Amino acid sequence: MTDLFHLAGTFLWLSLIAVGGGLGVLPEMQRQVVTRYGWVTTREFVDGYTLAQLTPGPNMLVAIFVGYGAHGLVGALVAGTAMFVPTSSLTGLIARRWERLRRRPWALATERALAPVGIGLMAAGVYTLARSAVHDWVTAALAAAATVVLAARWLPPVIVVLAGGVVGWLVRS
Amino acid sequence: MRRDMARVPLRSLIRVFAWTGLIALGGGRSAYFYDAVVVRRAWVTTGEFVQDLTLSQLLPGPNFANLAVALGCRLGGWRGGVWALLAVLVPGALALLGLTVLYFRGAFAPGTTRLMHGMAAAVVGLVLVTTAQLVTASLRGRAAVAVAAGTFMLVGPLGVSTPVAVCLALPVSLWFNRPPRGR
User: Fold this and answer.
1) Which of A80, B49, B179, B180 has the most crowded CB, counting CB atoms within 10 A?
2) ipTM tops the 0.85 cut
3) Each residue of B75-97: b (16+ CB within 10 Å) or e?
């Protein structure tokens, strides 16, 4: 039971510090769910994020994966709810008043000030993911190849990710 | 227009948002919403969309869900907001839950573990490209680059926890972006 409280508290906390996109919260999420609570291993965490990339909807649905790893179906429900419901409610409340609020000079300043912080956090998210997912020459080559193909917009992301899996599988077997 | 008045029938809103949630895979997900509610259907103007997009990035929480809620509220009042959130979350959540159950039951045999490793490596490429696009599109000026680089160094290589790093970086960034005096 206490574990469920920790789960809800952790994902609520993670959702509150998720400014500028889910990727930015990844380093902190790994710290909490792998290092602090040990709900999933580093490998499972990276695999969970990969599955969340493959399925539709926000990547932060990875909360469901971690929640399930920690506490089965109830854990998945608790983590998913904590991740999405409080912050979405806040957005709903403020969206209806935003027309008036955004005219204040500090609203605009905050908007501009948050952008580079959010980008820095996203870059740190890439770093966290790369450190766990790139561990030999095959994965390094795959990551590099995926970067080139996606930057050139040769193929859609889902195809590239699936192809990465197939190549990874073929090379080592 | 008051946000309480529904601009769009709830049924169409759910259908369009669920579809957008289903096809929005990979990076730049908000672009799919732009296409769905501004380009394909004249439900909101570009100005309104940008406003909701900014709000969704400004407020805490996953951006894509926030954007769905903000647009949903605009199109159908609070009911629109609730249904918009459910429509973008539930299909993906069920799909991921299915895969998660399989994963933890060990259905992903050693062969599929190699598959996962390959896919995870490709995802690194994906997030790298998405982040690089954002850097080139929205990072303007030396101060912004310095703040972004500082935040990255703190949270990435130095391993400082995110809230601490934000507490350090945000005041500096606010100072650079402070409104001019006398307003």
Assistant:
1) A80
2) no
3) bbbbebbbbbbbbbbebbbebbb
